[in-house]
Amino acid sequence: MTTHTEAEIASQPSCWRRAVANIPADALPRRGERVAVVGCGTSWFIAMAYAVLRERAGHGETDAFAASEFPHGRRYDRVLALTRSGTTTEVLDLLARTTDKSVAITADPETPIMSAAGEVIVLDYADEKSVVQTRFATTQLAMLRASLGEDLTRAIADAEQAVAEPLPDTLVRAEQFSFLGTGWSVGLAQEAALKMREASRSWTEAYPAMEYRHGPISIAAPGRVTWMLGQAPEGLRAQVEETGGTFFESALDPMAELIRAQRVAVARAFAQGLNPDEPMHLTRSVILSS
Q1: pLDDT tens by residue, 135-187
Q2: H-type alpha helices, the chain
Q3: Residues 9, 138: one domain?
């Protein structure tokens, strides 16, 4: 029987197509605005990726924060809040306190976020039954990338490849993972590591690729994987392979490569008798008591 997580992972290429075909440009940050992007957990890592992409595209200064760490008192033209559930306490508290213009992206139109944010973009077709977030995260990032003028044709084709290709046994059986990224894919590396921890309780870490050599490479060893999302810095593969560790890299768009990591997380969960739909100690939304 296919789990919700498996079905949601497989649906990502079609969700991305729908997202890039329906960009709510009037609600998203305008070119030249100073923007803060906030979220919790997965949403924070997607915020990190978008912030880098927006600045790189010349659309304006963009900062990303975990909602609980938002610097109140610093002024922005707009706050963009990412929240699948629409009920996350830290996000709702932030929006209640800020005087900046705000817009939220959510999957559920029947939640408090609808009145907490000034404008709301609802991607209900990308909502999920699994606690583990996969397609909503990447679908909102696909929409945001397209809003910056990116052509995601290749990324969607890469996503279809990532969904269909057999998984290397080396990844499914690895003892440990270090996910690496550069620029916008640093956030995706953090997200890949989180998925592996959530779904399969695997030992995973994540770093900017150039920082990996400043200490973390000391844990590389036979049976452990250093997994690059995007193009690796020159010489890094050789340094990892000298330790006996496995260096994994592909030519896929980093967002499509994240899909492979999601699939590996599910495969590792099954190998351990875990249910990837219901990770231990987690719920769909973190709602704190007052």
Answers
A1: 999 999 999 999 999 999 999 999 999 999 999 999 999 999 999 999 999 99
A2: 4-10, 12-21, 42-56, 89-97, 113-116, 135-147, 153-164, 169-172, 185-200, 236-242, 254-271
A3: yes
Question: What is the distance between the alpha carbons of residues 276 and 267, in angstroms, rounded to a whole number?
Answer: 9
User: Does residue 279 belong to any structural domain of this protein?
Assistant: no
**Structure-block tokens of residue 209:** 């690729």
53 touches 195 (CB < 8 A): no
- Do residue 104 and residue 182 come from a single domain? no
Beta-ladder partners of 221: none
Burial group, residue 58, by CB count within 10 angstroms (0-12, 13-18, 19+) = exposed
Spatial contact of 191 and 172, defined as CB atoms under 8 Å apart: no
Residues, the chain = 290
Q: Which domain holds residue 40?
A: 4-147
